[in-house]
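Dear colleagues,

As part of the handover before I leave the project, I'm documenting each prediction I ran so the next person doesn't have to rerun anything. This entry is a single chain, and its sequence is reproduced below.
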Amino acid sequence: MKRYTTVIFDLDGTLLDTLQDLTNSVNYALKQYGYPLHTLEEVRYMVGNGVRVLMERAVPTGLSPQEFENVFACFKEHYDIHCNDLTHPYEGIPELLHTLKTRGFHLAIVSNKVDTAVKTLRALYFDDTISVAIGEKEGIRRKPAPDTAITALQELGVSAGDAVYVGDSDVDIQTAANAGMDCISVSWGFRDTAFLQSHGASRIIDHPSQLIEILCKMSPDSETES
């Protein structure tokens, strides 16, 4: 297997289970304007392309641009306050990141969540393991465009050929391909194995410990440990 020095992670559905907080904020905004609410499972398949697209999928069809902007602003205001009410790392993620960091891997987050929220959550949960975190902001195209992933590689000082992208969605598979990176998909997030396979996933894991097994066999320190 190819040797990597760097792992870039998606955030929502890969490192953090953010679905309940996202659903709560979506439904709060919809309720304020009398629109139909959505279940957790419905919101699961709306996320992945940024919060604006999430709300475009959540609101009823036929809204005027101003009506949409009103409900979108309501969502953002609520989520800014409540983005960490129920959010938590998936089982095995802290151990995974600690092991990779100890083995000398460079680690980063690339997400379609708003950049300020990505940086806040990195500091809250991964400050001792992940040094670079990039989200959606003006002037840079969001995933699946390669821009944010390439920016992360530049900040880490590594090339795409030395890195693997780890994510839970079709957007992540496309992002990795567009950035010239290999991809490992995870089934514990917002998309299941069948969905990932149907969207071109070449390698799928079911638990963070499997990523340790895969990557640490060829870790930067592996040669010195043998």
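Residues 19-82 form a domain with the DNA polymerase; domain 1 fold (CATH 1.10.150.240). The longest strand covers residues 106-114.

All the best with the project,
I.
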